Amino acid sequence: MGYLRRHKRGQAEAQFNWIFVLIVGGVIMLFFTAIVLKQRSTSEQKLSATVISDLEAIFTGASISKGTVHALDVPRVDLDFDCSRFYLGQVNKPIGKQVLFAPSKVQGTNILTWTLEWNTPYKVNNFLYITSEEVRYIFIYDNPDSDILTLINESIPEEMNAEFYEFDNDMEAITSAITDQNNYKVRLIFIGEFGERPRNIELRFEDAKYFPDQLSDMPGDDLTALFIKPHSSIDSINNLYFYDSDGTTFKKINDTYSLDHISSNSIGEAPPSLFGAIFTDDAHEYNCIMKKAFERLDWVSEIYLDKAEKLKSHYDVDYPKLICEKNVANAYIASPGESGPVGIEAIKDGADTCSQNFPEIDCVSQIAGAAEALETLNSRLLLFSCALIY
Amino acid sequence: MKKKSQIQMGENIAIIFIFILLVVGALVFYSRVQRADFEVKHEEDQDKEFVQISQKMSFLPEIRCSQENVPIENCIDLTKLDKFTDMVATSQGYLYYENDLKTSTITLEQIFPDTGDKWLLYNNTGDKSSSVPAYIPISIFNPKEGSLGEYYLGVLIVGVWRD
């Protein structure tokens, strides 16, 4: 009887021992699993933070050297861009006041950066463009002699994955020839009028013949189109229409403008804000980025307005020279009989409005007109050996 | 039997105790290594930030000289400086440039001819305690001197505040 009781107790103690080992073992395993998972997520975030910080430094370096193209070989990244930030996984960095045009998603191992200077007519900012070699740009045009096409064709970086198709009265022949090359984003850019029907030019591109059927499986915001309405000659302002795909046709999302001052000294130079619309696949993002550009124009114009006032006072009091004083004054003071601001004042006023209300055509036209007038005045200052405004 | 089990249980607890001690020791060691790594990384980031701020400041169109809209390298236009400093001194201006110039103090000093002129272009110390200034030689252009202006020699002092 006594032996049996001892034997039973021994069994219970052995069982308790095993349960104890099991519980402690489980707790230890859980502890290490939690550490491994936490460490994995921390390492991923640390790596993302390092890559994003390196990219930020690269973008800053690229943004200050105008006209340069950099092809960056990087480990496969998946970057997201919007007007104010760029993201890598859960880590993001503010873009701040930098004017940066990019597709909503930049993927791949080859990232391209390109920088152009935006002048209206004085230098306002460098525009930075970012894209991937895996994004495909398809330009379709109806007039090979079009000025805007020539500008785009001559200035577009060689490293960009771009194709050009000439329209020969058969749009279906072009769109059916566009095959799926496994790009994660495809952007069609139409330059021209492509016939006369329907009369509403922006609705023309909603016709099924403008849609590349072989790419119909791509999500709506990965297959996008831009229509650049041509002018008879190079103009500072271009009408732009943004389209998304619905799987069978393009649907117009928004219309907006580009503003690139065409200087007599810079004919043939790439139009920065027009390229902004080519790189950005979302009209709202494009408008938001352009608002930042106009905000900068507002700040820079305030400084030039003050500089012009100082120069006028200099030629009036310290170093009397009537011809210089008159021309500097014309750069910012409304001439007798003229209503509303002219010159720098008009640019500042337009920039202030556009920084809030873009795409409003009135402020865009006001800036374009005033920039042209100011350029003439600045050239006249040079002619009379006066200090230049810019 | 009872004693044997008690001894076995005591052994188990002692092993767990030693194991926990080893794990805690390893975690403390690992966190110290991580902290040292983090500090090195933080310093690297601050160095990068310094380079970025210096680059942005030297190429700022608001103060940079230009001739027929062609920017002049390493040159600051004196007639643009006063307005720029006034603008940055406003809360709106401070907020506008804060993202680009971060926690830094940027001053411009004219060194030849030595007039003692000094301009505070931007100042945001944040809650940081020290800064290592870097001196960038720069020319200062005064378009109001004579008919076509005059150049002076200056130095741009960029100090990025660190923890």
Q: Describe it for me?
A:
The complex is a heterodimer of chains A (390) and B (163). Chain A is flat. The mean pLDDT of chain A is 90. Chain A is built from 8 helices and 12 strands. In chain A, helix 5 (283-318) runs antiparallel to helix 6, helix 5 (283-318) packs antiparallel against helix 7 (343-357) and helix 6 (322-332) runs antiparallel to helix 8 (361-383). Chain A has helices at residues 2-64, 147-155, 171-177, 272-279, 283-318, 322-332, 343-357, 361-383; strands at 69-81, 85-88, 91-94, 100-101, 105-119, 123-132, 135-141, 162-166, 185-191, 223-229, 237-245, 250-259. In chain A, the strands form 2 sheets. In chain A, strands 3-2-1-5-6-4 form a 6-stranded mixed sheet. Chain A has a 6-stranded mixed sheet with strand order 8-7-9-10-11-12. With 163 residues, chain B is α+β, with helices and mostly antiparallel strands. Chain B has one domain. In chain B, 49% of the residues lie in helices and 33% in strands. In chain B, strand 5 and strand 6 (150-162) form a beta hairpin. The longest helix of chain B is centred in the first third of the chain and has 57 residues, at 2-58. Chain B is rod-shaped and about 110 Å long. Chains A and B meet through helix 1, strand 6 and helix 5 of A and helix 1, strand 1, helix 2 and helix 3 of B.
> SS-based structural class of chain B?
alpha+beta
Span between N and C termini of chain A? 111 Å
H/I helix tally of chain B: 3
What structural class do helix, strand and pairing data of chain A support? alpha/beta
Classify the helix fraction of chain B into a percent range.
Answer: 40-55%
The rounded distance between the terminal residues' Cα atoms of chain B is 64 Å
In short:
In chain A, 44% of the residues lie in helices and 24% in strands. Chain A is an alpha/beta fold and 390 residues long. The mean pLDDT of chain A is 90.
